[in-house]
Amino acid sequence: MRRIAFAAPQVDAIKWVASVAQIAGYAATAAAATPWNIYCFLVGIIGWFIVGVQWNDRAIMLIHIVALAAMIGGLIAT
Q1: What's 4's DSSP letter?
Q2: What is the pTM of this model?
């Protein structure tokens, strides 16, 4: 059985900042506040990718790399 470890304070702070940034990105998207929505999502994506690296969690890293690629693809297409 795997032991559950508590998050280090710096990782916990990164999680909260990244989560708030992504929520702000959703709100900015709903308000049609571009490019602020992209900036917020970028902070959230990078933050959660860092958390994935710190935790050695490939699933978290993968989903945020895919999100970043989709965001860049969308920016290039517009």
Answers
A1: P
A2: 0.83
